[in-house]
């Protein structure tokens, strides 16, 4: 029986920071991250140059994971673009119901990072653009007459669902958002030649 090698200091810092910045926000103290990662302060500076770059790497890692979750959710819903898009809202209902749900990591980071030039903002903007493209692609496949605008609307619903889910937690938030999403999607069917 072989033992799994323990992750190195870089991975432990990323893991600890990813958990703590979600549960306590990006303003969580460096000492808390170092303690949770069980690494010396020197490791933070050797691997990331400081807390700001660690936050950026955590955001990059999280956005990649969340984008993959969107793709998996949509692919599991089958080939119909409408079903694929509505599956996103079904998944949001599950996410909101998770016991450790704390809202949207990216909205929280954008609000907490007061410096508009903080590189974390570029990561969250890029993520939202990628999610927008995923939604827009499905809307084009559906034949929606204004796919980009509808993707804006769906993204706003997603953001609102995550925010409301954190502040007024119950599964009905996602169900209400799903109903509005259905109306946006059905607009494609109502526009005829």
From TrEMBL:
<dbReference type="InterPro" id="IPR036271">
    <property type="entry name" value="Tet_transcr_reg_TetR-rel_C_sf"/>
</dbReference>
<keyword id="KW-0804">Transcription</keyword>
<feature type="DNA-binding region" description="H-T-H motif">
    <location>
        <begin position="29"/>
        <end position="48"/>
    </location>
</feature>
<dbReference type="InterPro" id="IPR001647">
    <property type="entry name" value="HTH_TetR"/>
</dbReference>
<keyword id="KW-0238">DNA-binding</keyword>
<protein>
    <submittedName>
        <fullName>TetR/AcrR family transcriptional regulator</fullName>
    </submittedName>
</protein>
<keyword id="KW-0805">Transcription regulation</keyword>
<feature type="domain" description="HTH tetR-type">
    <location>
        <begin position="7"/>
        <end position="66"/>
    </location>
</feature>
<dbReference type="Pfam" id="PF00440">
    <property type="entry name" value="TetR_N"/>
</dbReference>
<dbReference type="InterPro" id="IPR009057">
    <property type="entry name" value="Homeodomain-like_sf"/>
</dbReference>
